[in-house]
Amino acid sequence: MRIKVIGTGSALPAKIVTNEMLSRIVETDDAWISSRTGIRERRIAGEETTTDLAVSAAKAALEDAGCAPEEIDLILVATFTPEHCLPNTACAVQAALGCRNAAAFDLNAACSGFLFAMNTAQAYVEAGIYRTILLVGAEEVSKVLDWEDRSTCVLFGDGAGAAVVQAREGEAMRFLQFSDGAQGQVLACMERTAENPWHTAEKPPKTLTMDGQAVFRFAVRRVPECIRQLLAQAGKEPEEIDWFLLHQANKRILDSVANRLGVEEGRFPMNLDRYGNTSAASIPILLDEVRRKGILKEGDQVVLAGFGAGLTWGAALLTW
Ligand code: UT7
Prior knowledge:
This protein is of the alpha/beta class. It has helices at residues 19-22, 30-37, 50-65, 89-97, 113-126, 150-153, 212-234, 251-261, 272-275, 282-292, and strands spanning 2-11, 16-18, 41-43, 74-78, 103-107, 132-140, 158-168, 174-179, 187-189, 208-210, 243-246, 301-308, 312-319. It is globular and about 55 Å long.
């Protein structure tokens, strides 16, 4: 059995923060940010919470799929910036939408989270456990950023994307996923919100820290390697793939992956210029955009690939 995407949705905070606006709070400028990253603006949440964004995106995906809330068997929300520790965001989505027959849990694989959630959905479907699954990637990275650190605060944005997938006869979606916990410190958020009277050790930073160059090197090496490995297993060449929907971190990373695969950049749709890096939300927001624009055609071969903190990375090959 394979999964088929039957509906998508996305939700973005109303507030647009341009590079020029950032140059008024940290020592940076539009020329540096856009030339090094491709990002021109991002959405930053004000009143909206991660839960609000997740619910809005999920609602839009259900409507798009023409799917009743009761039909959903499982809700997976990928996030590393939930509004609360408990209850999890997936249960909040369940309650808000009335998906009363669903099991619901969150999954944290940072920027690879939505991809890992989709792979999990495929595994459940293939095992015959669930038939209709709601997948959400939702983040408010702005809540864990150090807004005085120009090397990180210019890169990220907030948002949510969702997809409803359903079991169909046919060969299972192929996917690969990897982790390298030994490299965990290159992109970390060591926040501890609770204290106890016996905890006297020095507190780790509450905001996101990153060795940008190490993450860059990791991404440009591991992502094309992983896509090639996936395609080799499927007996396909990169030029046979219609669309590559990659985690939207940096235009230079996407260009480098395209170059290393020998594929023209036009087959890598991008929206990071408008939204920045929205972590687990970036792939489903992009998927929703290209789907609604009618870019994806029945039968298209689509590669999804994610990479990020953990370190985690992976790819999946979908027949649209
Ligand atoms: O989902 C995965 C998330 N992470 C990523 O995608 C990060 C991947 N890495 C990158 O995208 C890039 O490494 C960055 C965009 C983060 C940085 O680009 P870079 O070309 O690697 O720059 P750099 O870190 O080598 O910094 C070059 C210079 C430094 O100044 P000096 O030491 O040469 O004087 C930085 O202090 O640029 C400076 N710099 C800035 N200048 C203006 C760093 N951030 C900024 C800034 N504005 N916002």
